[in-house]
Amino acid sequence: MGDGGFQFLDILLLGAIAGFIALRLRAVLGQRTGHEQRRRRPPFAGSESEADKAGTEDRDGDNVVSLPRRDIPEQPVDEKIARIRAVDPAFDGDEFLGGAKAAYEMIVTAFAAGDKDNLRPLLSREVFNDFAAAIDERVKRGETVETTFVGLRGAEIVETQVNNRIAEVTIRFESELISVTKDAQGHVISGHANSVEQVTDIWTFARDTRSRDPNWTLIATTAPN
Q1: CB–CB of 189/143 below 8 Å?
Q2: Which of 102, 90, 93 has its CA nearest to residue 209?
Q3: What is the phi/psi pair of residue 76, to 5°?
Q4: What pairs with residue 65 in β-bridges?
């Protein structure tokens, strides 16, 4: 999520509210210092998975869109950071994580609320289309999702890579959520209002380091094996 700090926030958030959140995201993600996580257009979203998948699927509580992705190999922390700094010298791992955490909560919350306007600037086109399709299906069924973000138990960079100066950073999030899905009649069909669910999400954010845009966008989500 120097001056660029975790521009990630820049990209990430949400009009009146969209503009305000966008400012917050930029603050968290940083202004342009040369690094800026969340690529072409921002990151943070979903629990359990979104990656190069064909199709979308809601997870329990309808607060996540799942996109299968490749297995993620472990890399030494220094090697992960060095790989991004090679194309973006201002990249700061700690600042990026700070912005990513803020973006994660915003994306999960916006998805549960069906807020496509606030999601759009944080996600790549492909991921946004998947999220939007899941939201539309939920609306057709007359379902609503009530999600309370309890907090993040942890977040760590697990993989980085650079392809044609497109930087990608993959983060494993460990969060706690209370999520309940109700049908058109208001009956609970998924989740528990008094039960905290521990969720592990693996998200990948990307940014074109040749662009003046310091923002990063969420390009994939993956559920751990």
Answers
A1: yes
A2: 90
A3: -60, 145
A4: 58
